[in-house]
Amino acid sequence: MGAYILRRFLLVIPTLLGIMILNFALIQFVPGGPIEQIIAQMEGSGDVFEGISGGGSEIVENDDSSYIGGRGLSPEFIAQLEKEFGFDKPPVERFLLMIWDYVRFDFGESWFRSISVFDLVVEKMPVSITLGLWSTLIAYMVSIPLGIRKAVRDGSSFDTWTSGAIIVGYAIPGFLFAILLIVLFAGGSYWRFFPLRGLTSDDWETLSLFGKIVDYFWHITLPVLASTISAFATLTLLTKNSFLDEIKKQYVMTAKAKGLTESRVLYGHVFRNAMLIVISGFPALFIGVFFGGSLIIETLFSLDGLGRLGFEAAVARDYPVVFGTLFAFSLIGLVIGIITDLTYVFIDPRIDFESRG
Asked: What residue range is the signal peptide (predicted)?
């Protein structure tokens, strides 16, 4: 097992390098870079994307690059901007310098926020941790018992109506459900039971420990519900199908023939085998929700998390934030893949990745 883990960690290096090379190469062909953004704003064009869509100034050709709205700015000023942002160097040299900094975990500073990328991510992380952790935990705590119950009562009326409810919940987009919650419970048109902004109240620091806990859960109730609604279907049906496959196997029939109770057979023998796929996928699911975040849900509930950070950095062409977070999150995702494999072995020691290698 040790040799397998070592090989997986060594494989992280070329995989991570490939991700960075591919995204860096794609960025070179994306119009509306950071210098173009600044020039468009200085020329009063508003947003550089207006010019790309045909609503702004014409593209003016320079010696090396084309800039929207650069008609009234001197070539010397543009060259100074290029030097300040590092675009006076060839792309290969810029990429190698960036990777060298990232190897030392130096992610640089945001071009437009005057704050380090690391501090910026740490600042936005509480929102993403809240949505990711609670959404994942609630989805598992509800889906696993429900899936087991549906497997035991397969074909019954309970199984039928719960399947219908799950499918309806899965069909409702998270952002639409969020709007419904706001309209009903956050002062939209009916009741105002829950707040609509932030993770905590303005007077949170003055509250007691119990008051802080209540205030925190009071604020996260609606966004967490909106983030969780679509996760129930996949987990519940996966749990049900896994249990149904195991219940039909010979060892279950043998255990029942020996006189074991149904609960003993179900939780003492079937559970470990049936939950292998479901439980081992927890790390990857949490990281997916944590880093993916829902931009729309964060926006609807005025939450400033990693989802909005990534979107705003991409729109503003804030490359240190884009590539710094891409490198960090890709590295964490690859390590989580290794942890997921170890979780498989922990749940079922019969699995041996070493022999497969």
From this structure: none
Residues 6+ apart with CB under 8 A from 30: 317
Q: What band does 14 get if pLDDT is binned at 50, 70 and 90?
A: very high
Fold type of domain 120-356: MetI-like fold (1.10.3720)
State the average pLDDT over residues 182-191.
Answer: 79
Average pLDDT over residues 173-179: 83
Rounded CA separation 80/273 (Å):
63
d(CA 82, CA 98): 16
Concatenated DSSP letters of 236-300 = HHHHHHHHHHHHTSHHHHHHHHTT--HHHHIIIIIHHHHTHHHHHTHHHHHHHHHHH--HHHHHH
Q: What is the pLDDT of residue 52?
A: 39
Q: How far is CA 319 from CA 33, 305, 313, in A?
A: 9, 18, 7
What gap in Å lies between CA 108 and CA 98, rounded to an integer? 9
**Token output for 75:** 């070539």
Which tokens go with 66? 């084309």
Q: What is the pTM of this model?
A: 0.71
User: What integer pLDDT is reported at residue 66 of this predicted model?
Assistant: 47
Residues 6+ apart with CB under 8 A from 89: 97
pLDDT band at 329 (very low <50, low <70, confident <90, very high): confident
Question: Whole-angstrom Cα distance, residue 18 to residue 73?
Answer: 38
